[in-house]
From TrEMBL:
The keyword Transmembrane applies. This is ABC-2 type transport system permease protein. Keywords: Membrane, Transmembrane, Transmembrane helix. The chain crosses the membrane at residues 50-70, 91-116, 122-141, 161-180, 220-240, 288-309, 315-331, 361-382, 388-416, 437-459, 471-495. The lineage of its organism: Bacteria, Bacillati, Actinomycetota, Actinomycetes, Micrococcales. Signal peptide: none annotated. The keyword Transmembrane applies.
Length: 509
């Protein structure tokens, strides 16, 4: 299959040959630079190794779906010979090592191992680090391509391009802001060293941290994370191979019709249809647009009274992002009411609660995550201490995810009248009760209570306890994810039980 890439149209072959030559040249330069780390100090070598290895591993994980790559080792290509799923899955993992990107990664890994040896690393640790890192890259690529194969490839529409741009924005902007804020004074910045330390405990960076770990305990911890990551990826790959061999592909003709917008991009499932319809509303209905625009403005304006009251700037500048996270999680708390009489489509078609609840959260996630991902690094730069970045991520995650979970319950349990489609977003109808006010307040209060543990740890981290920063990250993400899952489940049950009353509400308002 690799040699087959050099056959076919002459222009295609020339482009491929040029690409391979450039890739080889870039690999040689990168390998020489990696080998040159032998003359650097141990900390610099370790930081560069972890960051470079994490970037390469992340590229293997997200590269195939972003570039819409066609997998030459797609398990369905071998279905005609009737193979057993397990032996085929194992053989394809071995075959995955025979590719140009993997050979390039192997070259870089060997160069890093040479530098590690010059820094006093043991040969066993260096070999284990390179082997585990390379295997993790191959497994990530296999699983990523298999997941992409399960979803019908959409056409390159404006919606798909916007999703790619958002993904790039979420990843590139925070990294660019972080690197641009560092002060290089002949040594590795402490912020960069902290980032490398965090990555050494993640699935994408653990394997590359074994070779030059600062302590034996850190090496064992990174080894455990790397082995656990490989085990999970192997199990996922074997399961995906079985699914691919026993699943019939849907015809692509229906999905290739033009003019469907988000409906052509998202999966043809009830949840996908709800998400596509919600995205169309959120990006076109001025009632939604006004809400999205007001959130960042209100968050920034909220810092003015604090500055006037004498709160230090480095503390006040951290407040807008959590406020935005709180309001973004709060926005869908009355989402059903904005559907008006169109709600009958969901109820009449028998959409279950889970697809409805999840689909309605997709627009908020697609809008809120990029804004928070760009705003938070800028706030940290203004604050001046990157050590509190993980803690702030935990607080924002708890507020955002907790608000979404509680909103999933509130929108079906206590909806209240809003401006009708086509009316001014600032025109509010008269309400006979206080249910709407209570629902709004409870969602906000619940989101703040969800983030309370992470907020307390973040305050400790701001005071200088850096160990609480990472703890705040996991506490915030865990609490937010728990409330989100529980909220979606309870909201789904309430939705199915109150379907008739929700329809009556929509008709009456």
């Amino acid at each position: 299959m690799m040699l087959g890439a050099l056959r076919g149209d002459r222009r295609d072959v020339i482009r491929r040959v040029i690409g391979v030559v450039l890739l080889v040249a870039a690999t040689v330069v990168a390998a020489m630079s990696a080998a040159g780390l032998a003359d650097a100090d141990r900390l610099t070598t370790a930081v560069v190794s972890v960051l470079a290895g994490s970037a390469v591993t992340l590229g293997f994980a997200i590269g195939p779906p972003v570039t819409a790559s066609i997998d030459p080792l797609d398990p369905r290509r071998f279905a005609v010979i009737g193979p057993e799923p397990r032996p085929l899955a194992g053989a394809l993992i071995l075959a995955g090592f025979l590719s140009v990107p993997v050979l390039v990664t192997l070259t870089l890994g060997v160069s890093l191992a040479v530098a590690w040896g010059a820094q006093g690393a043991s040969a066993v640790a260096s070999v284990a680090s390179v082997v585990l890192g390379l295997t993790t890259c191959v497994l990530f690529a296999r699983v990523s391509m298999a997941l992409g194969a399960l979803v019908q490839r959409p056409r390159q529409s404006r919606e798909l391009v916007s999703v790619y741009l958002i993904a790039v924005l979420v990843v590139v902007v925070p990294i660019g802001v972080f690197l641009g804020s560092l002060e290089w004074r002949g040594a590795v910045p402490t912020q960069l060293a902290s980032a490398a330390e965090i990555l050494s405990w993640t699935p994408i960076g653990a394997a590359w941290a074994i070779g030059l770990a600062p302590t034996a305990g850190a090496a064992v911890g990174s080894l455990v994370v790397a082995l656990a990551t490989m085990a999970v990826l192997v199990l996922a790959w074997f399961a995906l191979v079985r699914v691919l061999l026993t699943t019939t592909r849907r015809p692509a003709a229906v999905r290739e019709r033009g003019g469907l917008g988000w409906f052509a991009l998202l999966p043809g499932t009830p949840g996908g249809a709800v998400a596509a319809r919600s995205l169309s509303y959120w990006l076109r209905d001025r009632r939604y647009i006004v809400n999205v625009v007001i959130v960042p403005i209100a968050a920034v304006v909220s810092t003015v009274p604090l500055l006037v009251a004498g709160v230090p700037f480095e503390l006040a500048v951290l407040l807008p992002v959590p406020i935005m996270a709180l309001f973004f999680g709060w926005l869908p708390h009355n989402d059903l009411a904005y559907d008006s009489t169109a709600l009958w489509m969901h109820i009449a078609s028998g959409v279950r609660g889970i697809p409805d609840r999840v689909g309605r959260l997709v627009p908020v996630l697609l809008i809120g995550i990029p804004i928070l991902a760009v705003s938070l690094p800028l706030a940290i730069v203004a604050h001046g201490r990157w050590a509190v970045f993980p803690a702030m991520v935990g607080v924002c995650a708890a507020l955002f995810l907790g608000g979404l979970g509680l909103s999933s319950i509130s929108s079906v349990l206590a909806p209240y009248a809003v401006s009708r489609p086509g009316d001014s977003p600032f025109q509010q109808p008269q309400r006979t009760g206080s249910g709407g006010v209570v629902a709004q307040g409870l969602v906000m209060l619940g989101a703040m209570l969800t983030a309370l543990p992470a907020g307390w740890l973040t305050w400790q981290a701001i005071g200088g306890a850096t160990i609480d920063s990472v703890l705040a990250l996991w506490v915030g993400v865990g609490a937010g994810a728990f409330v989100l899952v529980v909220g979606i489940g309870l909201g789904a049950v309430v939705y199915e039980r109150r379907a008739t009353r929700l329809m009556e509400f929509a008709e009456a308002t």
